[in-house]
Design goal:
The protein is mostly beta strands. It contains no helices and six strands. It holds the Pfam family Cupin_2.
Length: about 110
Amino acid sequence: MRIIDGAGQWAPPAQGTANDWVENLRVPDLSVGTYCIPAGGVDDQSPHTEDEIYVVTAGRARIVTPDGAAEVGPGAVIFVPAGEEHRFTDVTEDLALLVVFGPAYGSRGTA
């Protein structure tokens, strides 16, 4: 057992960066991280080669995929399959996301 301190908690991006990404845990079959986008910020991520689950722990935004768009806020759980384009837009409140990748982030190579 392991308690993952800080996972899903808001952290402002470092000076000169758009967003904050921290990998909090990594094992071969999954990884857990925290992705933060400040209010008014731009999500600059690319599709991933792993399946992904986001849990919104703070903030509000809109997620856009080829299948549609949805408003999200605290408590929302979002599944994004490997390779699917997705982006958080209209970030109206500092957005903190707990992110779970299966298998571990980047373990399947690049998209």
